[in-house]
Amino acid sequence: MDFQLTDDQRALRAGMRELLERRYPRTRLRAVVDGDAERGAELDRALWRELGTAGLFALRVPESAGGVGLGLPEAVLAFEEAGRALLPGPLVATELAAGLSGLWAAGGAVPGSLEARLSGVAAGAVQGETVVTALDEEGARTPVEHLTSADAVLALGPSAVELIPAAEVARAAEPMRSVDPATPLHRTESNRTRQDQAGPGRSGIAARLRREAVLLTAAQQLGSASRTVELAVDHAKRRTQFGRPIGAFQAVQHLCAQMLVRAESSRSVVYAAAVTEDPGDIAAAKLLADEAAVHNARDCLQVHGGMGFTWEADVHLHLKRAWVRAGQWQCAAAAEEELAAGLVSTVERCL
Amino acid sequence: MDLAFTDDEEDFRHRLRAWLADALPTLPDRPHPADWPGRRAYDCGWQRMLHDAGYAGLHWPKDAGGQGATPTQHLIFLEETERAGAPYVGAGFVGLLHAGPTIAAEGTPEQRARWLPPILRGDEVWCQGFSEPDAGSDLASLRTRAVRDGDTYVVSGSKIWTSHAEIADWCELLVRTAPVNADAPKHRGITWLAMPMDAPGVTVRPLRTLAGTAEFAEVFLDQVRVPVTHRVGEENDGWRVTMVTLSFERGTAFVGEVVACRRVLEALARTAKANGRWDDAVLRRRLGRLAAECAALWRLTQWNVSEAQRTGGVPGVGGSVFKLRFSQVRQELYEAAAEVLGPDALDAGQEWVADRLSSLSYTIAAGTSQIQRNIVAERILGLPKGR
After folding, report:
1. Which residues of chain B neighbour A261 with C-beta distances below 8 Å?
2. Which architecture, in CATH terms, is B240-380?
3. Are A257 and B377 a contacting pair at CB < 8 A?
4. Nearest-CA neighbor of A153 among A130, A176, A175?
5. What is the per-residue pLDDT across B38-88, written as a single tens digit (0 to 9) for each?
6. Which parts of the sequence belong to the Acyl-CoA oxidase/dehydrogenase middle domain (chain B) (predicted)?
C-alpha cells in the first residue's frame, strides 16, 4: 500500500495547474463574470480546443484510440485543478463522452443507438472540438449546463445511455437565470431517454458513467474547497484590524483550521474513491466534497468580511459554483441514502 | 496512489489472522473496568501472548527488541486485531507507544537493556507524568521540581490525569531542573526521568471520571529520590527528548478506533432496522453521513500511514487534521446512537453508554480541539501567532 501521489501524478497535477494559470488566469474568469450577461457566459471554444489539445479530455482514452491511456486517479487530479481554477464548462460530460470513444474502439459493450453518433461526437470530444453537456435523469430534475454552447447532450437514464443533438434538447428547454454567472442553466422536460432500450450491458454502462460523473464532480469540489482555504489564509495574513493581522485572532484561526480539516478529509476519500471505484467510497467522496466546497466558500466569505460580500471578490463565484455542483449528479440526500443502505447490507449483531 | 497490499503484506495479514483465530479463544474473561489489578493482569497477559508469538513491539526497531515492521504492517496489525475483537493495548499504552520508543531513541545501552524487554514481555507497566494542574495544554509551564543531590534528583510537585498510575511500575516523568527565566523559552530546563512508582514519597490518588470509574489519578511527589542514571537524554533537554516521540504515533494511534467506529455504526443501523427507527429518513440519512465520515477517517489513516512510510515517520498535515475530525465524529456517532436507542440511552447498564461517556474525553485528551486548531492555523497554515 502506497496511498500517496506518484511522481508522475504530481507532475500531471503541476502541469495542469500551470496550464490553467496560463490559459485561464483570473482576468479571463473575471471577463466572463463581469462581461455582458448574455454573451459573457458563452463557452470559449478556443479555450476548449486548447484544453483538448493539452489532453484534458483524452486522459483516460486508451492510447490505441488516440488518447493518453491514464486512469481515473489522473482524471481526478486534473479535475481537481479545474475546480481550483473555477474553469467553466461541461467538463465532466465531455470527458465521459470522450471516454466512450475508447470503449467503442475497443469493441466494448456500447449500445447500438450510441454507435452511429459516437464516432463523430466522441472523437470530437477527445480533441476538444465537440462540447458535450449532460442530462442526468435519475433522481431530481437537474438543470442542464451550457446547453446553448453544446453540440451534444449525454443523457443518462437509470439504465439507458444516449447522445442527443443539443439543438434537439434545447427546443424543449427553458433558460434559467443561473445563480452562477459562469454556468448558464436550462430546465428541461424529463425522460428524454428511451427507457425501453435498456439492456443489461447498457445498464452497466449507465451506472459506471454515473459513478464517474459523481467522482469527477467531487474532484472539482475538492479543488474549489482547497482554493478557498488559500484565499482565506492569504486574506487573514494581509488584512489588519486593531493593529494586527486578523489571522492572529483565534476566532479567525479556528475558522481557517476547520476549513483545512474539511478539505483534507474530503481529499482522502476522493482520492481513495478514484483508486477503488467503490460506489460507497464515491458516494462518501461526493457528500464530503460538496460539503467542503460549500462550507469552505461560506467560511472564506466570512473571513473576508465586508469585502467577501462584494461582486469584486472571487469568493461568491466559488460558493455559487459549489452550489451548482452539489445539485449535479448524486446530491446529498441520495448519497446519504446509498451509504445508509450499505450499512445494513452485511448481517451481524445489533447493539 | 495505490491501496493494494503487496504479497508480503497480504501474507503478514493471513498469518496474523490465523494466529488470532487460535489465540483469542484461550483468553480469560474480560475484567470489570473498575478492577484495576484484574485489568493489569489481563492486559499484560495479552502482551505476553503477543510477545511469544513474535508480535510485541511490532513497529519498534529491531535493535530495540521490536519487529521492525513497516507502518503498513502496523496498520494491518491494528486493523486485524480490532476486527477480530482482540484486546486493546490497554495498560501497555504508555510503555509500548511512548516511553518505550523514547528510551529506544534516546536512552543509553544500559537503559535500553533495563527497561525495554519488560515492556515488550508485558512484565512492567508505565504511566505518563506530564500534565500538571497548571500545565495541561500548556505543558511547558510544568512546575514539578527536581534538585540535584549528588547522584540523585530530589523531586517534589504533583501530576494529574495520569492514566494507569494505580498499577504502574514506572512513570515517564517530566520535571523542571532549571528555573524559568525571562531570557529563555520555558521549555528549556525540563528533564525526562524514569521514576519507580514504589519510591518513597509517591502518593497516588485516583480521580473519578464522569463515567463513574477511576480511569486516571493525581500523583503527589514529596522529596522523591530518583537516581541520575534514570535520566534519559541530557539535563534540561527533556522537551526535545519528549518531542522526538510525541508526534510519532499520530498516524496510527487511533486505527483500532476507526475500525470500531464503522463496526458500531453498522450495529446501530441494524438496531434501527430492528426497532423501527430506520423508517425515520432524517435519522437514516444521519447514519449515512456518519458512514461517509468513517470512510474519510479510514482513508485519511491510510494516507497518513503511507506518508509516514515514505518520510520515515515525520508527521505531516494529517495528524492534527485526523485528531480534530476523529474526536468530533466519535461524539456524533454516540449522539446518533442515543437517538436510535431512545429510552435505552438512559440505561447506564448498557455497555455502549460507557463508550458514549468516554467519547466526551476525545476532544480534550492529547491536546484539546481548540489547541489543535491553533496548531493547524499557526504551524500548518502559517497564520501569525495568535492571542
Report:
1. 321, 324-325, 376
2. Up-down Bundle (1.20)
3. yes
4. A130
5. 999 999 999 999 999 999 999 899 999 999 998 899 999 999 999 999 998
6. 127-224
The structure's pTM equals 0.93
Residues of A in contact with B317 (CB under 8 A): 260, 264
Tell me if A77 sits within 8 A of A13, measured CB to CB: yes
Active site residue B80: no
Q: Across the interface, which of B265, B321, B382 has its CB nearest the CB of A343?
A: B265
Question: Which of B382, B293, B379 shows the shortest CA–CA distance to B336?
Answer: B293
Beta strands in chain A (DSSP E): 132-136, 144-145, 152-156, 161-165, 173-175, 185-188, 240-241, 244-245
Q: For domain B126-235, give the CATH number.
A: 2.40.110.10
Contact B287 A343 (CB under 8 A): yes
Q: Which CATH superfamily is domain B7-121 in?
A: Acyl-CoA dehydrogenase/oxidase, N-terminal domain (1.10.540.10)
- Each residue of B104-148: pLDDT tens digit? 999 999 999 999 999 999 999 999 999 999 888 888 999 999 999
Cell numbers standing for residue B250: 499520530
Instruction: Judge: A350–B274 Cβ closer than 8 Å, yes or no.
Output: yes
Label the pairing between strands B126-129 and A244-245.
unpaired
Contact at CB, A247 and B1, closer than 8 angstroms = no
Of A229, A214, A300, A298, whose CA–CA distance to A264 is shortest?
A229
Coil vs helix vs strand at B199: coil
Phi and psi at residue B233, to the nearest 5°: 85, -175
Beta bridge partners of A59: none
- Whole-number Å distance between alpha carbons of A341 and A47: 42
According to DSSP, the β-strands at B126-129 and B170-176 are: parallel
Cell matching residue B378: 499557526
Interface of A with B in 109-138 (CB under 8 A): none
Q: Nearest chain A residue to B76 by CA: give it.
A: A1
Q: Which residues of A touch B84 (CB under 8 A)?
A: none
